[in-house]
Amino acid sequence: MARLTILEHREIAENMMWLAFSAPQDLRYTPGQFLHIRVTDGVDHLLRRPISLCYVQGEGGAKSQAIAVAYRVGGKGTELLRKKKVGEELDVLGPLGNGFTLHEGDRHALLVGGGIGVPPMVELAEQLTQQGTKVTSIIGFQSANVAILQEELSRYGEVLVATNDGSLGLQGFVTDYMTEELLATADRFYACGPTPMLRAVQAKMDGKVEGYLSLEERMGCGIGACMACVTSCRMDDGSVGYKKVCKDGPVFSAPKVVFA
Amino acid sequence: MARLTILEHREIAENMMWLAFSAPQDLRYTPGQFLHIRVTDGVDHLLRRPISLCYVQGEGGAKSQAIAVAYRVGGKGTELLRKKKVGEELDVLGPLGNGFTLHEGDRHALLVGGGIGVPPMVELAEQLTQQGTKVTSIIGFQSANVAILQEELSRYGEVLVATNDGSLGLQGFVTDYMTEELLATADRFYACGPTPMLRAVQAKMDGKVEGYLSLEERMGCGIGACMACVTSCRMDDGSVGYKKVCKDGPVFSAPKVVFA
Amino acid sequence: MTVRDVDMSVRIGPITMKNPVTTASGCFGFGKEFADFYDLSVLGSITVKATTIEPRLGNPTPRVAETPGGMLNAIGLQNPGVELVIAQELPHLRRYEIPVFVNVAGTTVEDYVDVTKRLMDSEDVDAVEVNISCPNVKCGGIQFGTDPLQAAQVTEAIKRVSRVPVIVKLSPNVTDIVAMAKAVEAAGADAISMINTLVGMSIDLNKRRPLIANGVGGLSGPAVKPVAVRMTYQVAQAVSIPIIGMGGIMTAEDAIEFIMAGATAVAVGTANFVNPLACPEIIEGIRQYCLDHGIASIRDLQGAAWKELA
Amino acid sequence: MTVRDVDMSVRIGPITMKNPVTTASGCFGFGKEFADFYDLSVLGSITVKATTIEPRLGNPTPRVAETPGGMLNAIGLQNPGVELVIAQELPHLRRYEIPVFVNVAGTTVEDYVDVTKRLMDSEDVDAVEVNISCPNVKCGGIQFGTDPLQAAQVTEAIKRVSRVPVIVKLSPNVTDIVAMAKAVEAAGADAISMINTLVGMSIDLNKRRPLIANGVGGLSGPAVKPVAVRMTYQVAQAVSIPIIGMGGIMTAEDAIEFIMAGATAVAVGTANFVNPLACPEIIEGIRQYCLDHGIASIRDLQGAAWKELA
Ligand SMILES: Cc1cc2nc3c(=O)[nH]c(=O)nc-3n(C[C@H](O)[C@H](O)[C@H](O)COP(=O)(O)OP(=O)(O)OC[C@H]3O[C@@H](n4cnc5c(N)ncnc54)[C@H](O)[C@@H]3O)c2cc1C
Ligand SMILES: Cc1cc2nc3c(=O)[nH]c(=O)nc-3n(C[C@H](O)[C@H](O)[C@H](O)COP(=O)(O)OP(=O)(O)OC[C@H]3O[C@@H](n4cnc5c(N)ncnc54)[C@H](O)[C@@H]3O)c2cc1C
Ligand SMILES: Cc1cc2nc3c(=O)[nH]c(=O)nc-3n(C[C@H](O)[C@H](O)[C@H](O)COP(=O)(O)O)c2cc1C
Ligand SMILES: Cc1cc2nc3c(=O)[nH]c(=O)nc-3n(C[C@H](O)[C@H](O)[C@H](O)COP(=O)(O)O)c2cc1C
Ligand code: FES
Ligand code: FES
């Protein structure tokens, strides 16, 4: 837990904000982890907001200078968060949870992001590229006005964009890009986005490409203590049980996730 | 009700703040009235804080440029208020209530203020001076570190200061200055401060000088609708009943006030 | 799903409110003060401060305290008594051409009946709201608010003498709010209003005593909204008379939450203290919400949270 | 009035807590997660999540919602069952050398008795806290929490099999909290903890359905503090067993408010989610408050709000 100074804060698409703040000392993180951010010091919005780590500027550990996240202003808490100005402090817990697993030998990874599921793909792309894995990003949005991070991701490899209304890229869904040919070239996939997208991706990849899904759930504590954020998973013994998104996840091995 | 821009905000003594903000259009006011200030847009501190109008910069009506108040940071709401910066907006209701009555023919008025009861005396001194009434201010504080507005008041006439610990001016109470001689020269007195002070002033002045007391009470609405802020008063028919500090007061004719 | 205009009208028994928003008793005085801020005729109705048979001085001060997300009050039914209310407070409200609901309080069944009888002499009363739930007066009605049998008795007694609709206001300080609601419905109540305040306390650490002179006070404001919404949701499914929902409504969204929970109309209380324009802003906000969501009549949202999806 | 050090210790029956702060059940898991943030041995005691005889999966999600000044939860007693709790969760807590209170839940009196009996086989249980008040499980104990007779029965039954002190946790969703407290005291309870959550609801305007999958949830956090303080104040004057007060404690001042109301110890719940360091900060804050105010023993403040001034 730390109070971190806001370094950048600006709108990057309609109601989509880019927020960078100073990194805590000895930052340790993996892509896919989240930060648990308090939006006010008062009690009117008590719970912290989980927001994925998007990008870490500088090198790891004590050398990293800033953490950036990208978030959508949707409800009351993010509305308050948007009002914070450069120079103000932010009460941040984390990085928390279980991020994406990188596999050293991978030659080609597909990064699949939908809407506010796109941000964690940036740091993931960075780290995959660094270890020599080629990256193709497939990202989907409602429409062009809320599209984010396309440019950032294009630094690491090809970016395929889909929008529901066709206002940017392909008209359709991210899964429309997932041809047999493309999947045949991929060693791994990493996906984050709305549940319907994750369900479709899981089905599409099943038996073809191994990979990970990053899930969302409403949280209380964010650290595994309150049992608020459970999600159905296939356990090691084959039964279906609950895992905690905040602690066991948010990232799970794709075949383990059981959608309702 | 208006959203007014903060023009000045600084500490003038220990935990005593000076706050000036733009005046609403067509400001009408009398000294002794109060402003009902919201300290947060959130719900964690729901009730407005009543703070006396201290000074109006510029001329009356549309010509006035700024309203200033002086307040003590004591509880949670004023702690939040203190954090507001120049340029931010303030949600202000008022000026509200029944201020001090000025009497044109008065030659000499005693202004008695204790602690955070001193602020309303400044605008009162200004207006009395303008109508040709000579002003003597008698102000009391716990100690020198929380003394405020002595300089401002000295622009209008003599200022007599008392502190409980003797760290500034006379060691003692404001009433210690109220000699028979002084009272004999006064046509009117105006007092605002803690209840024990007001009670002592009322007793001292009784039958000698006519005047007014400005009272404090915890408020709900500030506009006379909720009955939170009642205080015991002698009614026109001689009985004792409740008057509302927010609407009938905060200023009452001294003999009408019945202290518990 | 575009609608041109929204039908905002609702019915509380035989009374039509042109929109679903009334004021919560005790939070709006007798209207005068708010008339300085806006034209009261925009309101769906006005509900005035509790009235007793005799004038009452109420409790000593402090009478209010701030709490996280809410406030405590223990005004103690200060009011000039029903005679003066009829003579001096109610007549001026007629000019706004909106229904006037008069909140009635007392210590015994006879008190309630006497106030109601007296109010029947006035042409300025469109409904009585029976306050069986004020937590701030010793023997001041709370026993009627926590016992279904006594609640039914006082309701019946008032129904017998009232020629206007009788709204019974429920206390949330009970184990079983549904039992209370059913009891007053069976006793003839024309509508229910809910909730009155939760009994609470704040302690002044410096004085080492309760902050409010009365000791306990009634908790209101956003803090209580989840309790009020839950009770409205439960009661709306158990009775068939209309409900006026309240407890922490600050915005149009809050009002719609109560309507979806099953309230026919809503009352705005504490919000008036924070923002004197709360009521007109909420009314406009509800209209705008309906326009934005293609809702032709506010009545279409009533109970939406438990009714079958269309 | 200067004191050098503060005696922070309090007693819950035969148990000594070195300071008055424990964790609220369900808000601290089994401690593990918070051990990453600080050394749990600073706590006065630790109260762990509710345990049932069989493993329970709990309710579907969403299980939590934010409300003004508070939150709703409907976890639904998810827990691995008493066997696994004894085998895997409790042993590691011994190293902190603080009393461990185990929250016990069930559907029938037999359930409660069976869990308690099983816990008696463990050396790692210093007290059982009987959760007769969880509002989030159908038939999950709430009937015991709202009826004095049933509360007494379950208390007696547990007392008969427990060799450690029995703390009974009261529900605030009742008309008469004092009657509940007296009933469990008469039935042999060694202490009372209060309050559990208020039953509330939030509605998702977009879905037009309750936001929490379970429909209703339990309201906790600062919003409920005035209700919790009021009940503590009333119960403390009516019983002679110690009270563990809770409901919305975020700061040391909040904790002291409960102690002045009559609580012997306090529990911190929701605050742990907002600030994982809440408990140690509150403990230090209480100590500092006592130093600043010349209070030699925290016990001197217990009930100060209603005891005669010294
Ligand atoms: C692991 C994880 C990572 C996330 N990463 C991002 C990200 O990088 N960028 C981004 O824009 N959003 C992200 N989200 C979603 C983000 O947490 C919610 O959009 C946000 O909490 C909504 O807060 P609000 O104040 O706008 O809404 P409100 O409606 O005011 O929120 C009320 C409560 O509900 C919770 N809540 C509401 N919506 C969601 C949701 N979709 N998921 C979880 N909790 C929710 C809030 O946290 C809060 O507790 C992530 C969610 C999770 C679980
Ligand atoms: C008519 C009037 C004029 C005032 N003028 C001034 C002034 O010019 N300068 C100044 O410093 N103070 C003034 N006060 C006192 C000021 O209102 C309180 O100090 C302030 O409200 C305390 O708020 P807080 O957030 O610090 O305390 P908190 O303890 O957080 O306040 C909690 C609640 O109690 C109320 N409250 C607490 N103390 C008082 C009090 N002494 N009087 C009334 N309400 C109180 C608050 O308004 C709030 O509703 C005036 C009070 C009144 C009634
Ligand atoms: C200051 C104050 C005075 C009140 N007086 C009354 C009253 O006289 N009669 C009554 O039935 N309810 C009274 N109430 C309760 C309100 O009408 C309403 O039921 C409650 O405050 C919840 O709504 P809110 O959260 O919007 O304020 C009063 C509430 C407050 C805050
Ligand atoms: C997420 C959550 C889970 C809870 N689980 C339990 C539980 O298992 N057993 C219990 O007796 N109380 C449970 N409670 C109630 C708390 O122990 C406590 O009584 C209540 O939250 C009030 O305290 P607070 O406002 O400090 O949170 C739970 C509360 C929360 C918020
Ligand atoms: S949010 Fe508390 S366990 Fe995941
Ligand atoms: S504060 Fe509401 S009547 Fe004075």
UniProtKB/TrEMBL annotation, chains A, B:
<comment type="similarity">
    <text>Belongs to the PyrK family.</text>
</comment>
<dbReference type="InterPro" id="IPR008333">
    <property type="entry name" value="Cbr1-like_FAD-bd_dom"/>
</dbReference>
<protein>
    <recommendedName>
        <fullName>Dihydroorotate dehydrogenase B (NAD(+)), electron transfer subunit</fullName>
    </recommendedName>
</protein>
<feature type="binding site">
    <location>
        <position position="221"/>
    </location>
    <ligand>
        <name>[2Fe-2S] cluster</name>
    </ligand>
</feature>
<keyword id="KW-0274">FAD</keyword>
<dbReference type="InterPro" id="IPR017938">
    <property type="entry name" value="Riboflavin_synthase-like_b-brl"/>
</dbReference>
<keyword id="KW-0285">Flavoprotein</keyword>
<keyword id="KW-0001">2Fe-2S</keyword>
<dbReference type="InterPro" id="IPR037117">
    <property type="entry name" value="Dihydroorotate_DH_ele_sf"/>
</dbReference>
<feature type="binding site">
    <location>
        <begin position="77"/>
        <end position="78"/>
    </location>
    <ligand>
        <name>FAD</name>
    </ligand>
</feature>
<dbReference type="Pfam" id="PF10418">
    <property type="entry name" value="DHODB_Fe-S_bind"/>
</dbReference>
<comment type="function">
    <text>Responsible for channeling the electrons from the oxidation of dihydroorotate from the FMN redox center in the PyrD type B subunit to the ultimate electron acceptor NAD(+).</text>
</comment>
<feature type="binding site">
    <location>
        <begin position="49"/>
        <end position="52"/>
    </location>
    <ligand>
        <name>FAD</name>
    </ligand>
</feature>
<dbReference type="Pfam" id="PF00970">
    <property type="entry name" value="FAD_binding_6"/>
</dbReference>
<feature type="binding site">
    <location>
        <position position="226"/>
    </location>
    <ligand>
        <name>[2Fe-2S] cluster</name>
    </ligand>
</feature>
<feature type="domain" description="FAD-binding FR-type">
    <location>
        <begin position="1"/>
        <end position="102"/>
    </location>
</feature>
<keyword id="KW-0249">Electron transport</keyword>
<dbReference type="InterPro" id="IPR001433">
    <property type="entry name" value="OxRdtase_FAD/NAD-bd"/>
</dbReference>
<dbReference type="InterPro" id="IPR023455">
    <property type="entry name" value="Dihydroorotate_DHASE_ETsu"/>
</dbReference>
<dbReference type="InterPro" id="IPR050353">
    <property type="entry name" value="PyrK_electron_transfer"/>
</dbReference>
<keyword id="KW-0408">Iron</keyword>
<dbReference type="Pfam" id="PF00175">
    <property type="entry name" value="NAD_binding_1"/>
</dbReference>
<comment type="subunit">
    <text>Heterotetramer of 2 PyrK and 2 PyrD type B subunits.</text>
</comment>
<keyword id="KW-0813">Transport</keyword>
<dbReference type="InterPro" id="IPR039261">
    <property type="entry name" value="FNR_nucleotide-bd"/>
</dbReference>
<dbReference type="InterPro" id="IPR012165">
    <property type="entry name" value="Cyt_c3_hydrogenase_gsu"/>
</dbReference>
<keyword id="KW-0411">Iron-sulfur</keyword>
<comment type="pathway">
    <text>Pyrimidine metabolism; UMP biosynthesis via de novo pathway; orotate from (S)-dihydroorotate (NAD(+) route): step 1/1.</text>
</comment>
<dbReference type="InterPro" id="IPR019480">
    <property type="entry name" value="Dihydroorotate_DH_Fe-S-bd"/>
</dbReference>
<keyword id="KW-0479">Metal-binding</keyword>
<feature type="binding site">
    <location>
        <position position="229"/>
    </location>
    <ligand>
        <name>[2Fe-2S] cluster</name>
    </ligand>
</feature>
<keyword id="KW-0665">Pyrimidine biosynthesis</keyword>
<dbReference type="InterPro" id="IPR017927">
    <property type="entry name" value="FAD-bd_FR_type"/>
</dbReference>
<feature type="binding site">
    <location>
        <position position="246"/>
    </location>
    <ligand>
        <name>[2Fe-2S] cluster</name>
    </ligand>
</feature>
